[in-house]
Amino acid sequence: MAIWIGIDDTDSKKGGCTTYVAAVLIRRLEKNGIKIIGYPRLIRLNPNCPYKTRGNAAIAVKADTDDIDMVKGIAIEVVEEYSELDEGAETGIALLPKEPDERLKKFYWRAVREIVPKEDAFKLAEDIGATIVYYEDGKGLVGALAAIGADLTPGKTYELIAHRTREYWGTVRKIDPKSVFEMDKATRPYTFDNVDYETGEIRIAPHTPCPVLLGIRGVDPEIVMKAFKMLKIYEPIEYVTVFETNQATDVHYQKLKIGELKHGVNAIVEGIVSQAPRLDIGGHVFFKLKDETGEIYCAAYEPTKSFREIVLQLIPGDEVVAYGAVKLKPQGLTLNLEKIGVKKLAKKIVVRPPICPACGKRMKSLGAGKGYRCRKCGLKVGVEAAERVEIPRSLKPGFYEVPPSARRHLTKPLELAL
């Protein structure tokens, strides 16, 4: 008999880390003679959650024991020791002495794609016979149960997380950047998002005062361990833990029509560019996309860097598939772009005054809809005489994505889709 343990909401804006709680919990269980079955889980939930701290992650561990009281006691001990309860963390712990059923899996899919009320978590726990422990209002029970029920059949990746010793929390991380670039070149595409070549920054280390030193993401647990050993690190490490995750799997997206979109969902929308892109104040790019059900703004914000240059090349009539988060903005519902697929390009036609048939000079427009007049000989012609020239497009059909520095945890890099 095995017991699943799910935990969520242990950190705060000031510090803490749910993966660190998982690392301590695993060692504490093992110290008490309880074996961990498989890899611990690091499960990312809806990235649009309004009350998330950072990456909206929950964890789950499968313990090889039937002593639920011991497991519960150890979990409470670890949470009360390391959760940011004094800073407002609403930690939830769920224990399930059996394998998760379809009810839990459906709950997971809701938590990845919707904002789930905590009341639904309390009801589900009662229905499936889960033991729960919660602090404050217990919002963390949503993630704790979702992590246990996580459906990884559509795909999974792995992340090796190295945690710092306490005396180094809040200090500059001592990792040799050159070794990170070398590791990336040696292990890609089996590891991903290690560096952002556009900005020149390493992406494996956070900038927050949390206990995480670094995280290496990859498609195989042995690969991430191999990559870790390539790094030059100049500070002590307390724990190294490999998690199986739903990161980089696109599971948060839903294929929706524009008329079905609402604030907080993550959508894949096919449509036609209906308004040309514009570069706005702050370096943000906006255009409008339409389908048979409606029209919506799409945005490529300044942090997406060169991705905006792709978006600026779109013209009305282009057929695209847009991936992103739907947010309610001053201009209305807006799809914040993370990836875009250019399916079919419209012809870019430039209309210009014709050549005068009498004297061979370029004619001048008389105004919208009024035709043209030759400046040399005075000959007038109608608007139908205008010269229409097709301009070659530099944009090519295909998929384009934001750089690693602007990518969210659940979004699949294009190199993994090949």
**What integer value in Å does the Rg equal?**
27 Å
Mean pLDDT metric: 95
Query: pLDDT below 50 for ≥5 consecutive residues: which ranges?
Result: none
Largest sheet: 10 strands, mixed
Structural class: alpha+beta
Q: What is the number of helices?
A: 9
Taken as a percent bin, the fraction of beta residues is: 25-35%
- Quaternary class: single chain
Roughly what percent helix?
10-25%
Question: What's the overall geometry?
Answer: elongated
Could you describe the 3D structure shown?
The structure is a single chain. By secondary structure, the protein is of the alpha+beta class. The protein is 22% helix and 32% strand. Strands 1, 2, 3, 4, 5, 6, 7, 8, 11 and 12 form a 10-stranded mixed β-sheet that branches. Helix 1 (18-31) packs across helix 2 (68-82), helix 3 (102-113) packs across helix 5 (140-148) and helix 4 (118-128) packs across helix 5 (140-148). It is elongated.
Would you kindly provide a brief summary of this structure?
The protein has 418 residues and is of the alpha+beta class. The chain has nine helices and 24 strands. A hairpin with a 6-residue loop joins β20 and β21.
Task: Furnish the topology, listing elements before pairings.
Blueprint (H helix, E strand, L loop, with lengths): L2 E6 L9 H14 L3 E2 L4 E4 L12 E8 L3 H15 L9 E5 L5 H12 L4 H11 L2 E4 L5 H9 L8 E8 L12 H11 L3 E2 L2 E2 L4 E2 L9 E7 L2 H9 L7 E9 L7 E3 L10 E14 L5 E7 L2 E7 L6 H5 L7 E11 L2 E13 L3 E5 L11 E2 L6 E2 L6 E2 L5 E5 L6 E4 L12 H4 L1
Parallel strand pairs: 3-12, 13-14, 16-18
Antiparallel strand pairs: 1-4, 1-5, 2-4, 3-4, 5-6, 7-11, 7-12, 8-11, 9-10, 14-15, 14-17, 15-16, 17-18, 18-24, 19-23, 20-21, 21-22
Helix pairs in contact: 1-2, 3-5, 4-5
